[in-house]
Structures are given as structure tokens and as C-alpha cells.
Amino acid sequence: MIELSALLTPLIILIVLLLAAAWSTWLERRLLGIWQDRLGPNRVGPFGLLQVIADMIKIFTKEDWVPPFADKALFIIAPMILMIMTLLGFAIIPFSPDIQIVEFDNALLFVLALSSLSVYSIMLAGFSSNSKYALLGAMRTAAQMLSYEVFMGLALMGVVVIAGSFSLNEIVAAQSEYWFILSQPLGFLLFLFAGVAESHRAPFDLPEAETEIVAGFHTEYASMKFGMFFIGEYLGVIFISALITTLYFGGWQGPILPPVIWFTLKTALFVMFFILLRAAIPRPRYDQLMSFGWSILLPLALLNLLLTAVWQLTLGF
Question: 92 Cβ partners below 8 Å, 6+ apart?
């Protein structure tokens, strides 16, 4: 018989994540308002906190329209794939020593697999929409995400070499003496760049360039299907932030406060950093983004892996 805690833990984590993704929309608008010397949401509820509820009501009451020229089955399935893949990623994150849904030895490989499968969601959305703007956005996304997955994987290998494991729990345990940001500063920067591109957040939101391709792969989407892409993007930001916390900043480790509080604070800090990037950095051209990846990030990722391996062999002797 399945224990009650085994059922409650995933349910509680799911609810908390969905609420966090929803309220991240308020956090982004509020922080952008502060940084850009304007007010942001401040009318609906205290500090505009209920603006998220108003947005949800608006999305739920919009017409759930499927274009007559679209492939209906794929058009409906596409946003579901993105949500499912992103939420599955949180199953292997150790939020504290006692809060984790699934623990297994090849967790980082699982992360990379989910990242690859997420591309199918956006490709299906673009192709099934039967729209040239959606198709252009989907093609950009596929090239961008598949390219930056390479640099993300190579950046992770430095952590794997030092920790000697693909398990996130063992990686967190290996940071008991010092955080890996100290020994892997270059790997951290590479992973950060790749994470921004993978979540196609500004300034790397070229698949959704409004001035060029209207809204990219989700141009034809409305109502809750658009809402799933929208919330999926914020879930992706939270997931990348949680991975950065786990891999480079000691995970749930920290003094005095409970482990889950430390994990939440560190993750929230990186979510706010993602928002700051949107406010501070202009969007490059698409060719500049791809050239930056293959011409600069790839050699740096290989160099980081080589130096890490040499350092570990030297210490071993």
C-alpha cells in the first residue's frame, strides 16, 4: 500500500510550483516597474498581488479557438508536452534532505533528456499552426534550443567531474566544504547563458521576437492553451534557477535557517536575476546569438572541461 506522504509530497510540490509560476508574472512586472522607475501592478489588491487572479480570469474566459487551418490534435497536444516536461524536471530536484519526489543516480542525464523533449512541444506548435510566423518561430526555437543544449551539457560535465556523480543529491553533498561556484566559475557562466537561451527568455527570446514574427511559435494560440505556454516559460525559469542553486550554490545547504528556506531563497534570487536581464540587456540579432554560442561558448565549455579534468587528475596524484 502506498504511503500517504508518497502521494502528498508530489501534490504539494505541484501546487506550490504552479502558484509560484503564476505569481512570478506579478513579480516580474513589479520588479521591472521598480527598476524602470514606474509603478507596475498596484491597483488589484494590496501591492497589486491580485493582478494574477485577474489575469487568470481573463485567460479562462477568452474564447478557446483552434484555427480551422491547423492540425487540431497536434495543436492541442503541443502546450501539454511543454508543461509535462517542465514539471517532470522538478521531480528530481532535492528541495531539502527530506523533500524530493524521485532520487536516482542519473538525474542530470534525465534533465538533459527532458530539455531535448521540450523542443518537440514548440516544433509541433509551430508546424501544426500552419502559419508562416509560427513556423519561423518554431524553426528558430529548434535551432536555438538544440545548440545551447550542447553548451549546457558540457558546462554540467565540470560539476560531474568534481562530484564524481550524475546524482543531484551527491552533487549537493559534495558541496559541504565549498560551493562549486568557487571551483567552476566559468562553468556557472556557461550554464547561465545556456539556461537563458533554453528558456528563451529575454534577451535570448528570439523565437518570440514580436517585431519580426509577431509572437513566434504560439502566434495562433489563445485562452488556456496560450496560458500553458506562458506559465511553462515561468516554470522553466524557476527550474533553471533551481538547477543553478543545486549545482553551483550548495543546494539546500546553509546555516541557521531550515534547508527548504535556503533553497527557496537561493532560487528566488536567480529568478529575480532572470527578470533583471530582461530589463538591462537589449536583444541581439538571431545570427549573433547563434554565432555567440558556437564561436565563443563551445570553445570555452571544452576548455573548462579540459582544465577541470586536469585539475582533478593532479589532485588525484
Answer: 100, 101, 102, 103, 104, 107, 110, 111, 168
DSSP 95: S
Cα 43 versus chain centre, distance:
30
Under DSSP, the state recorded for 231 is H
Sign of CA dihedral 164, 191, 289, 234: positive
Amino acid (1-letter code) at residue 202: A
What is the gyration radius of the CA atoms in the chain, in angstroms?
Answer: 20
Instruction: Give me the torsion for CA of 113, 115, 118, 123, rounded to 10°.
Output: -100
* pTM of the full structure: 0.91
What is the Cα–Cα distance from 234 to 275, expressed in whole angstroms? 10
155 C-beta neighbours (distance < 10 Å), count = 27
Percent of the chain with pLDDT strictly greater than 70: 96
What are the pLDDT digits (tens) for 181-216?
998 999 999 999 998 888 888 788 877 766 677 777
The three cell numbers of residue 242 are 533551481
Q: Are 85 and 113 in contact (CB under 8 A)?
A: no
Q: How far apart are CA 27 and CA 35, in angstroms?
A: 12
**How many angstroms separate the CA atoms of 290 and 181, rounded?**
26
Distance of CA 133 to the CA centre of its chain: 24
Comparing C-alpha atoms, which of 87, 155, 111 is closest to residue 304? 155
In 3D space, the residue among 211, 203, 185 whose CA is nearest the CA of residue 275 turns out to be 203
Say whether 255 sits in a helix, a strand or coil: coil
What is the DSSP track for 141-205?
A: HHHHHHHHHHHHHHHHHHHHHHHT-S-HHHHHHTTSSS-HHHH-HHHHHHHHHHHHHHTT-TTS-
